[in-house]
């Protein structure tokens, strides 16, 4: 609605508890008429399980400060400074309200505030008409929460003003001695300017985009992509809900902690296993020590069998944001081991003690994949956990693969051979071999497995579909499958019938064969560089990639060929296409990384790979930058027909890999 809200945050180290930090929020209206609408800013301070808070009021209405203590922060003081005009100096008229309530848990704070709102308050700026506004009033408790012990305390400071205006908050640690002065006003502005300049210097030293000739506006775009990802990092704790085949009912996993980046701070504020490997490819370049810590945290989530849950929904606050059908983590379901891509990048400079601590976990993880995801034939692999009710889906999803609704065999069975998982296992064998060698551990079995899985002859025998002219999955498959509307009989005579449902119709019986689904999965032998530079299949794969009727677009490679029957088809009535056409940056990054490799290797396709690389890199960067300038965001995916950003936003997860593409850092 034309509201521009800018939040700035600076930390100043010191003392024994992390030091001081300050926070500035600037608000203004863009293009709005007069008078400007009233704006209320809500500042929450809450304890969760432990810690104390003490409010300090001014004129019985304004929460001026909060003193408190907690295990991690020691003693502290939070101060809410009076709002000012946008220049940060002139005082600004405001109305104040505050709330002091028992907290039923962090995941329910919004409900507490919403149930406390009243419109009985009046904004009375001298010389202007009086205006009513909503503000926090008395809290009377949440429905159904009577008798529940409080989990902590919530204090809320509400500032209501007419934009433009600026509000600053300072946090001062009790253990900081010889404080040079409050980090506010001019001191806060100076600290922000200093950090910004240091960030830009370090960014150029790391990625050299200025030296490569990128204009300032595109450098700012890349800086925003990296800092958005860094800003999304979080520390999470709690228990996952786990369903094991050995138990009838779901059980809470042991208490876990996780320091990780996230795909989207607002929409997906939690860790995803296969996303994280892509995140760490970028962060490993920026701060290797930070990246090593994140990888170690993820490997510490492993259970005794070597399984890591693919989605980390830790604690009630995280669970409150996840649809019920996605809450359960199934202990036979894998996810691509992309963390090994990042570890491979970190390997040359990783300290040996770090690798020595990691290695038993890496070995257990690798053994778990080989034990639980093995396919029907030697050296084949199969993702477990495909949707168990195929009649409800156009093509049952394979969430384990990360590619969710990408078309697989129409009828899930134990006879499936999944091409992408086989390629991931080749990469895993290679990285385990490299780590074992660095540590002086036996590396032979890993190299033997890597050699077998990289054998181009065996790869063709198991996954080359001559009739399709492409690498493919194999399974019990029918290509004559569609969704049709089916009327549902009334529950009882005389009752109105339920709404019609979309159900799957199989017009030709399935049979064991290669799955005709040309797209990202077909490219995996190239994406993970298993194809030799002189492979007779490489020209065909490159031609497929560059074919506009198949995967090529002016914006990047689409996920499923345009001439495929399932291209942009819904999977159910409520399930729009996801990996069935849109452009995804993580796979385009892998394609560029591979093309860069083939363009540098001796082989007959060297020039062709280089030409496709140059064009694809230009298309991807130009479109992501164009969409960013138009919308202000990186997006989850991009339309293959218009290039427009779509899906979730902001999405500074793997879409931020555009920084490495710009830097040509693979």
TrEMBL record:
EC number(s) for this protein?
3.2.1.106
Q: Name one GO cellular component term.
A: endoplasmic reticulum membrane
Q: How does it sit in the membrane?
A: Single-pass type II membrane protein
Q: Where in the cell is it found?
A: Endoplasmic reticulum membrane
What are the TM regions of this chain, as residue ranges? none
Per UniProt, which keywords does this protein have? Answer: Endoplasmic reticulum, Glycoprotein, Glycosidase, Hydrolase, Membrane, Signal-anchor, Transmembrane, Transmembrane helix
Q: Which residues are in the Glycosyl hydrolase family 63 N-terminal domain?
A: 4-87
- What pathway is it annotated to? Glycan metabolism; N-glycan degradation
Q: Known catalysed reaction(s)?
A: N(4)-(alpha-D-Glc-(1->2)-alpha-D-Glc-(1->3)-alpha-D-Glc-(1->3)-alpha-D-Man-(1->2)-alpha-D-Man-(1->2)-alpha-D-Man-(1->3)-[alpha-D-Man-(1->2)-alpha-D-Man-(1->3)-[alpha-D-Man-(1->2)-alpha-D-Man-(1->6)]-alpha-D-Man-(1->6)]-beta-D-Man-(1->4)-beta-D-GlcNAc-(1->4)-beta-D-GlcNAc)-L-asparaginyl-[protein] + H2O = N(4)-(alpha-D-Glc-(1->3)-alpha-D-Glc-(1->3)-alpha-D-Man-(1->2)-alpha-D-Man-(1->2)-alpha-D-Man-(1->3)-[alpha-D-Man-(1->2)-alpha-D-Man-(1->3)-[alpha-D-Man-(1->2)-alpha-D-Man-(1->6)]-alpha-D-Man-(1->6)]-beta-D-Man-(1->4)-beta-D-GlcNAc-(1->4)-beta-D-GlcNAc)-L-asparaginyl-[protein] + beta-D-glucose
Which Gene3D superfamilies does the record cross-reference, listed alphabetically? 1.50.10.10, Glycosyl hydrolase family 63, N-terminal domain
The signal sequence is: none
Under Gene Ontology molecular function, one entry of this record is: Glc3Man9GlcNAc2 oligosaccharide glucosidase activity
Task: Set out the biological process GO terms recorded for this chain's protein.
Answer: oligosaccharide metabolic process; protein N-linked glycosylation
| Annotated Glycosyl hydrolase family 63 C-terminal domain residues | 186-664
Q: What does this protein do?
A: Cleaves the distal alpha 1,2-linked glucose residue from the Glc(3)Man(9)GlcNAc(2) oligosaccharide precursor.
Q: Which family does it belong to?
A: Belongs to the glycosyl hydrolase 63 family.
Protein name, per record: Mannosyl-oligosaccharide glucosidase
The uppermost taxa in this organism's lineage are:
Eukaryota, Metazoa, Chordata, Craniata, Vertebrata
Q: Gene for this protein?
A: Mogs
């Amino acid at each position: 609605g034309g509201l521009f809200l800018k939040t700035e945050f600076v930390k100043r180290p010191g003392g024994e508890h992390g030091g001081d930090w300050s926070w500035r929020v600037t608000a203004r209206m863009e293009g709005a008429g007069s008078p400007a609408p009233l704006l209320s800013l809500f500042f929450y301070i809450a304890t969760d399980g432990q810690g104390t808070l003490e409010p300090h009021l001014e004129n019985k209405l304004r929460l001026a400060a909060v003193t408190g203590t907690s295990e991690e922060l020691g003693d502290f003081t939070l101060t809410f400074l009076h709002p000012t005009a946008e220049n940060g100096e002139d005082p600004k008229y405001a109305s104040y309200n505050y709330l002091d309530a028992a907290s039923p848990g962090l995941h329910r704070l919004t409900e507490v505030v919403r149930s406390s709102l009243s419109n009985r308050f009046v904004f009375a700026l001298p010389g202007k008409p009086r205006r009513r506004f909503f503000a926090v009033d008395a809290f009377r408790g949440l429905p159904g929460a009577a008798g529940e012990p409080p989990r902590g305390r919530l204090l809320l400071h509400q500032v209501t003003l007419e934009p433009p205006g600026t509000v600053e908050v300072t946090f001062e640690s009790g253990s900081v001695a010889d404080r040079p002065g409050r980090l506010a006003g001019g001191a806060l502005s100076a600290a922000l300017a200093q950090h910004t300049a240091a960030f830009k210097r370090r960014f150029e030293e790391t990625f050299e985009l200025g030296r490569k000739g990128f204009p300032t506006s595109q450098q700012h775009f890349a800086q925003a992509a990296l800092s958005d990802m860094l800003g999304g990092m979080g520390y999470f704790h709690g228990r996952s809900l786990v369903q094991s085949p050995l138990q009838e009912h779901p059980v809470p996993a042991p208490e876990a902690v996780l320091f990780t980046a996230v795909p989207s701070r607002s929409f997906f504020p939690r860790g995803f296993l296969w996303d994280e490997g892509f995140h760490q490819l970028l962060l490993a370049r920026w701060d290797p020590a930070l990246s090593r810590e994140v990888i170690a945290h993820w490997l510490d989530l492993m259970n005794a069998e070597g399984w890591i849950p693919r989605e980390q929904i830790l604690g009630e606050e995280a669970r409150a944001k996840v649809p019920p059908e996605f809450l359960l983590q199934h202990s036979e379901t894998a996810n691509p081991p992309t963390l090994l891509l990042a570890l491979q990048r970190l390997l040359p400079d990783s300290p040996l003690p770090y690798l020595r601590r990691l290695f038993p976990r890496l070995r257990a993880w690798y053994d778990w994949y080989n034990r639980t995801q093995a396919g029907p034939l030697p050296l084949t692999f199969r993702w477990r956990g495909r949707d168990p009710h195929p009649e409800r889906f156009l093509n049952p999803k394979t969430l384990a693969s990360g590619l969710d609704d990408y078309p697989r065999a129409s009828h899930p069975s134990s006879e499936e051979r999944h091409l992408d998982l086989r390629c991931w296992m080749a990469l895993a064998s290679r990285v385990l071999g490299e780590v074992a060698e660095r540590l002086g551990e036996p590396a032979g079995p890993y190299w033997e497995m890597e050699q077998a899985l990289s054998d181009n002859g065996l790869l063709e025998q198991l996954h080359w579909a001559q009739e399709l002219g492409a690498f493919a999955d194999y399974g019990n498959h029918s290509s004559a499958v569609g969704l049709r509307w089916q009327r549902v009989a009334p529950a009882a005579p005389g009752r109105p019938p339920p709404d019609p449902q979309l159900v799957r119709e199989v017009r030709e019986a399935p049979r064991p064969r290669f799955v005709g689904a040309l797209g990202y999965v077909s490219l995996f032998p190239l994406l993970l560089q298993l194809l030799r530079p002189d492979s007779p299949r490489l020209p065909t794969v490159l031609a497929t990639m560059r074919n506009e009727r198949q995967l090529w677009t002016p914006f990047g490679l689409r996920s499923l060929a345009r001439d495929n029957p399932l291209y942009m088809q819904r999977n159910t009535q409520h399930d729009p296409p996801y990996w069935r056409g849109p452009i995804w940056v993580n796979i385009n990054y892998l394609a560029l990384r591979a093309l860069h490799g083939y363009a540098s290797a001796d082989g007959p396709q060297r020039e062709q790979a280089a030409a496709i690389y140059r064009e694809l890199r230009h298309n991807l960067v130009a479109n992501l930058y164009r969409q960013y300038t138009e919308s202000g965001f990186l997006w989850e995916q991009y339309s293959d027909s218009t290039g427009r950003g779509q899906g979730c936003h902001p999405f500074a997860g793997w879409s931020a890999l555009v920084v490495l593409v710009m830097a040509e850092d693979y």
